[in-house]
Amino acid sequence: MLITFEGIDGAGKSTQVKKLEKYLVDNGREVLTLREPGGTVVAEKIRELLLESKHDITPMGELLLFSASRAELVQQVILPELEKSKVVILDRFFDSTTAYQGYGRGLDLNMLQKINDISTFGLQPDLTFFLDISPEDALIRKFSEKSLPLAFENNEMDRMESSGLSFYQRVREGYLKLAIAEKKRFVLFDACSDPDTIHAQITQKVNACSTPL
Length: 213
Ligand code: TYD
Description:
Blueprint: E1 2-6, H1 13-26, E2 31-35, H2 41-52, H3 59-83, E3 87-91, H4 94-104, H5 109-120, E4 127-132, H6 135-143, H7 148-153, H8 165-181, E5 186-190, H9 195-209
Parallel strand pairs: 1-3, 1-4, 2-3, 4-5
The structure holds thymidine-5'-diphosphate.
Thymidine-5'-diphosphate binds next to α4.
């Protein structure tokens, strides 16, 4: 079973990923948790290039680098683990590419879908949990109100985070469109709700989608 988490930076995905992983392990499931980009030696190098470098990368180059990292992770790790009937929890998958490189950077969505199909070898998540939050609230959450101006000033943001508020607005709108278009697997949450309430709803959905725990 493949479960993915999506949302703009600062939506609180990692808290929910950890809670779900613990819940599944406590209930006797074999779980592997991964995050994109990264997860193999080469994919981690691509991650560094994409996030830590201040290099100017074109939207097309960015798309292909995220996709190359994904292809490595899917073929080397995710597909073999799913074969062993493990539950794979993935913090970001190809929906991030649609939201960030498609809606955010403005790349053609049809072309993007083809590249997503190639980089994933056609693999689709069983469930996608989307934590929705406004970019303003997300920034405050991530850097805290007081240190936000400092984070800008001190260049504390990674390459993606320095893309600006209107970029994140477009990414969020992209996710909201995806949530409607992919109703079957997308589950939307207000990221500002109580984390334990969100977690309880997540476990309900997971149980409904798999053999009962
Ligand atoms: P990360 O530090 O993992 O952020 P987060 O905790 O928000 O997931 O950084 C991943 C960044 O890469 C994040 O800004 C989203 C972006 N991204 C894309 O733009 N396209 C993609 O396909 C993926 C997987 C991530």
